Amino acid sequence: MTTISFPVYTASNIQEELEIAKREFLQANIVVKKSKKVFLPRVLERFAKEASIASDDLLKWVLENVDKKLHDSIRKCIDRKSSRKSSKIAEWLPYSSRFRYVLSKDLAEKPWWE
């Protein structure tokens, strides 16, 4: 039997814990192919549309939130296509459920402030 562990978020450190989760999600779900295309998770497309974020700004945000190796790979892709828009560099990956966080049933049913 395989045991799956999930992170537990605490009220005192929620900001830091969510920041770490964001970075882990981006690292696990962004792919750069041959310095030509950046494949982003589809959920970021939805986020960008809902927040009215242009694709150039979304790529800048991604660059700020990934490690140096992935940052450099994305930067090479952008620099190679300097005459083209970011929308021509980025492609969307289908939704994936392989990376997710689950909340405890107890936390979902009973408000933490009670």
UniProtKB/TrEMBL annotation:
Full protein name: DUF547 domain-containing protein
